Amino acid sequence: MLRIEIDLFSGRSNPVWMITDPTETDRLLRSIAERPGVTARQGTGTSGLGFREVRISVLADDEARFKRLPPRFALASTGVKDFKNSAVLAESVIESMPLESKVRLVEHATTPLSREMREIVLTRFHRYLDKHARPRKPKPHKPPFNPLRTTIHDEKCKKCEYEVSQFNPGFWNTPSVQPYNNCYNYARDWRTDTFAQPGRAHGAQTFTWQCNTVSTAAMADGLKKRCDCLPQSEWPRRLMALVIDPNVDYHWYRHQRGGFWGHKPGSTAARNVDNSNVIVTNPETCDRGGYTDFCGYFYAGVSVVID
Amino acid sequence: MLVELHVFSGRPNPRWELDALHADALTELQRELKPSKQTPSIPPALGYSGFSYVTNDRPVVVYDGYVRLPGDVLDDPSFTIERFLLDQLPEEYQLLRDRIVAQVQRSRRQ
Questions:
Q1: Which long-range contacts (CB under 8 A, 24 or more apart) does B105-110 make?
Q2: C-alpha distance from B15 to closest chain A C-alpha (Å)
Q3: Is A249 exposed, middle or buried (0-12, 13-18, 19+ CB in 10 A)?
Q4: Residue B49 belongs to what H/E stretch?
Q5: Which residues of B touch A247 (CB under 8 A)?
Q6: Do A289 and B7 touch (CB under 8 A)?
Q7: What pLDDT was estimated at residue A141?
Q8: Residue A133: its pLDDT value, please?
Q9: What is the ipTM of this complex?
């Protein structure tokens, strides 16, 4: 999953959207990784008025790894080495701006996505490019392959499938990510940097910490109960487990590749061990301290939006 | 002085401001502590894992009778800092207070 931001405006919010489709995510990252010199650190190019850069942020810890690609970077910045090819890629990203966002963001209140907005961005972008070479269209790209994800059959309900990810705590355990993402971010595998709360993205946040209330809030975000199979179009699909410290707090785990469970307690580091420092192979029986109530398992597909 | 109690996983941790009087008292308590030669305890994954605050531009983390500052560990065998901060816990978190007091009393350091 990717966050795209066109760094363009001064007063109002920049145009922002999410790429949730795994094929599109993979295609874009691959096409960028194939061209050395087309990316720069965000905010290192021109800082004047008008178009400045296309900002891309990777939001999940198990997107396919590509050499040279950090989790956040910019295209068509004046800070890139290969400006011409970077501009080609940036233009294709701008042209892919959805006319209506599937994922509603705060920025859309002031800067809704629309055909008109896309035209405004393209006009400003071409004006910016007039100082540089005009790009050519990129070639079509290969279908996705992600070595960090494996599809498995659910052992509790064989008809259902979901994806398990390579355990990648390094994605989360950095000063710019760790304090701003919690167990819900980790289990859903979406770095929102907002300390996401179940239901908040859909006006259904709860302030009562019990199994039924937190489950209901999370299901408002799109989580499904285990064995309510998700179609392949929801790829990548996670298996999450919810536990409760009654009337105090909640906690989530995510099933990982290798048969164990990963989790991220609050703003602390992501890990795969419990309170007794034992690898979590079963969230129902592991040492959870005061989180004594085991609520159940849920699937989270790509359409689950959290905030 | 902003104090954070590290206790939640899903919810944001409790944070509150200490007024100048209590901030001075906390700094004074800290000043009375001696360096520790022991390795500080590692908090569990879930549940109470200490307090943090910034004093004299230095971030401070307190847990299980150890006060950690950049390059320093102070020994607080009587848990004076944790007890002091628990006494300042805002009203809406009183439910947590009893539990954490019990945990501190059960600490392996005592």
A1: B107/B64, B107/B65, B107/B79, B108/B41, B108/B64, B109/B41, B109/B64, B109/B65, B109/B77, B109/B79
A2: 13
A3: buried
A4: none
A5: 95
A6: no
A7: 45
A8: 63
A9: 0.91
Residue type, A166: Q
What is the distance between the alpha carbons of residues A55 and A192, in angstroms, rounded to a whole number?
15
Adjacent-strand bridge partners of A72? A57
- Please name the member of A182, A209, A289 whose beta carbon is closest to the beta carbon of B47: A289
Closest residue in A to B4 (Cα–Cα): A267
pLDDT in tens, B38-95: 889 889 999 999 999 998 889 999 999 999 999 899 999 999 999 999 999 999 888 8
A149 contacts A165 by C-beta, under 8 angstroms: yes
- CA B104 to centroid of chain Cα atoms: 11
Which secondary-structure segment (H or E) carries A80? none
Find which of B46, B51, B92 to mutate to test the A interface (most A CBs within 10 Å of its CB).
B46
Which residues does B contribute to its contact with A (CB < 8 Å)?
Answer: 6-13, 44-47, 49, 95-96, 99
| Exposure of B32 in the CB half-sphere (CA atoms within 13 A) | 11
**Nearest beta carbon to residue B9 from set A247, A266, A274:** A266
User: Per-domain residue ranges for chain B?
Assistant: 2-105
Tokens 């609520």 belong to A295
Q: How far is CA B20 from the centre of its chain?
A: 18
Give the predicted TM-score (pTM) of the model.
0.73
